[in-house]
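Re: your question from the hallway

Yes, I did run it. Sequences:
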Amino acid sequence: MANMNRRVLLKSRPQGEPTAANFEIVDQPIPEPAEGQYLSRTIWLSLDPYMRGRMAETKGYAANINLGDAMVGGTVGQVVKSRNPRFKEGDYVVEYAGWQSHAVSDGTMSMKLDPASAPLSAALSVLGMPGMTAWWGLMQIGKPKAGETVVVSAASGAVGSVVGQLAKAHGCRAVGIAGGKDKCDYVVKELGFDACVDYRAAGGNLFKELRAAAPKGIDIYFENVGGAVQAAVVPQLNDFARVPLCGLISSYNDMQMNPGPDWRLLLVKRATVTGFIVSDHFGQMEGFWKEVPALVKAGRIKYREDIVQGLDKAPEAFMGLLKGRNFGKLLVQVSDDPTRR
Amino acid sequence: MANMNRRVLLKSRPQGEPTAANFEIVDQPIPEPAEGQYLSRTIWLSLDPYMRGRMAETKGYAANINLGDAMVGGTVGQVVKSRNPRFKEGDYVVEYAGWQSHAVSDGTMSMKLDPASAPLSAALSVLGMPGMTAWWGLMQIGKPKAGETVVVSAASGAVGSVVGQLAKAHGCRAVGIAGGKDKCDYVVKELGFDACVDYRAAGGNLFKELRAAAPKGIDIYFENVGGAVQAAVVPQLNDFARVPLCGLISSYNDMQMNPGPDWRLLLVKRATVTGFIVSDHFGQMEGFWKEVPALVKAGRIKYREDIVQGLDKAPEAFMGLLKGRNFGKLLVQVSDDPTRR
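Structure:
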């Protein structure tokens, strides 16, 4: 249905884990751009954990999705028709078109991409929101000093992998936590972390294995997951530890509140926990652009993509993401990427 | 026994609440100052919640007290014999002599006091450690902006009372939380807080009463107590709230870990929780000295003392402190204060 707009709508709100029944796939007419707008076809759709929050009724950090609206999400697209002088037919753009094959936009939140400088999809991973998230949390909140130990959970993911490699670039010991031997091997052998703890294999020994991997204690914990991992990490924080609190994927499906660590652990160590969301800081990314693209070009920050073909697969892929089934940045290829041919 | 050194020793470590059996009161010979030392008689002894941590075996933020050693604590004393040229007989000093009537010191951690500029005992409250704690936590961690709402627990205490009055001086709405009508009345009518919630009377309505007292949400929560108060406050934090984590008096007697708030609450609000202990920052108090003594002199920061007569009463007074029985800064008068005659 290339002459229709395929869209994935939020049909009902999940109670706990999302299921296929929460989504509805529809074909609707492709919209016409009004004066000042352009129409793009979506090439790449980014799937990210924060989307779970947008599906809920309870107040999260951004406006939630209304029932019947398309799921939201960052995308890379190509302009196919334009009534906006800033965007021409054929231009590649990173935008926020959501889970749909076509979208109109006035371009205020869109940025043109140069396909010669980096693969288009990188604008959704290492050179996009996940990379900025890693950089902001580690550098602006964590403030790493050479010789310190940085622990990051979901270490093989789009954010975690950049956190550990950035930590290495700044002279820190980088310790990952990930689920499964493959992910841990990748984190250590491919990405160059000093160690990685497999929380699934560790089970009740997680605290001990983490201590072995971070024998001098933990100066920065970049928190992506919460739950049992959080409980093992927090008692191992060093004096004046910093905890950039980026995500808590282990509890996104929980309907009830979960207990966090006893604040006595934070008090005794004079630790700082700082929740953040990268979109608050999109205007403060000069340091990111100065540092990260060069490290990527030099091969000092590597990244991995986990690509799913076709928008229809997005719901299933997203459900897997919340269970850690992806390996690398999860992307949906919605249509052809001419720069990859 | 004026010619003996009366001392309160740690006899055994408390299991839960301290009891009289954990302390031993002894009379020992008054020590002789060695070359470079002075001998002081203690006039005022400060009793503070942190002392509970020093009595425990588990690792706290400072070296714990060994069994058989005197309890530690800040004091104001008068030099009675000196072999140190910096200190002369009759000088008043603020020092860390602990729970005893006499002590020798080399003076490295002592500071001379001018009794003409402020009452001697103020060096243990508003112009001493509790005042510095309030200032550091509110100003350096909380960073209040005019129009924001500051909530402080243990609001009538030595630290909390200064926090709220400083918040008012910076144009904030100051909301206290305290136990009992007398304390709440004092906080509002004497100290000028905008509101005070009596957590004892509120019981299960604490959340609601707090919402009524802080209708625009909470920008800064100065945490002194933990427990049910913490649980009521954290869900009411505003975006970008700051939580100077100073103490958790409700749980100091607990042998087990207590659950803290779900970190999702911190993440969604992008809140920051920062544990601190003022002694890490004694060298960074220029701002305190610039601001607080002038506010005290101008009557814009008032303080209240709860004075217990005689060192023998210190254990009982300390046990009451942990239950919130004191009203104002708890001090033990160990011997005569000639400046108050």
